[in-house]
Design goal:
This protein is an alpha+beta fold. It contains five helices and seven strands, in the order H-H-E-E-E-E-E-E-E-H-H-H.
Length: about 180
């Protein structure tokens, strides 16, 4: 059966309890010494200050015209100035979703939403959306295909031999 734990702190506590009660008190298979006894001989010194590692999940998303990015099955708003742009999304171990511009500036900060198809929206992100939309008004892609000329169709068509279907009857009779 697998191990159950509440969060990272709980898992670390369980791991430390296992180390102290099981692993570090038995004779090690390679050194043939008890790890707790050997540890004292190592002369290890603690770091002068705790090293903090950023273990956030990083991904990239393109924001939509309606000021949203899709992340982990949910939607998070970004300021209107960042509509239709590539943005970096950082999910922190604390349960935050922080969104950065391509220059590395933080543009939005939300709590991670649970479930699916949920929206974390800040109304102030929509200020100025109309101005941004009018600036970025582009004509949609339109494909125009000129009508083919009759001569071009005639020249492009392969020549096909025309024959009577009776020829196929004769071929079948010859096989029987």
């Amino acid at each position: 059966m697998g191990l159950t734990y509440q969060d990272l702190a709980d898992l670390n506590d369980q791991a430390l309890a296992w180390l102290n009660a099981v692993a570090n008190v038995r004779i090690h298979g390679t050194t043939h010494e008890i790890p707790f006894a050997r540890l004292a001989l190592e002369g290890l010194q603690p770091f002068p200050e705790q090293v903090v590692y950023d273990t956030s999940r990083i991904s990239y998303r393109r924001s939509s015209r309606d000021c949203l990015i899709s992340y982990a099955g949910n939607f998070y708003s970004v300021p209107a100035a960042y509509v239709c742009q590539q943005l970096m999304v950082k999910e922190t171990p604390d349960g935050d979703v922080v969104i950065f511009s391509s220059e590395g500036d933080e543009v939005a900060h939300h709590r991670l939403v649970t479930g699916r198809h949920q929206r974390a929206v800040r109304p102030e992100h929509y200020a100025g959306l109309r101005a941004v939309a009018s600036r970025s008004k582009r004509a949609g892609a339109v494909q125009t295909v000129p009508p083919p000329s009759p001569l071009a169709e005639w020249l492009a068509a392969p020549l096909v031999e025309t024959r009577s279907l009776g020829i196929y009857d004769e071929l079948v009779e010859g096989i029987r």
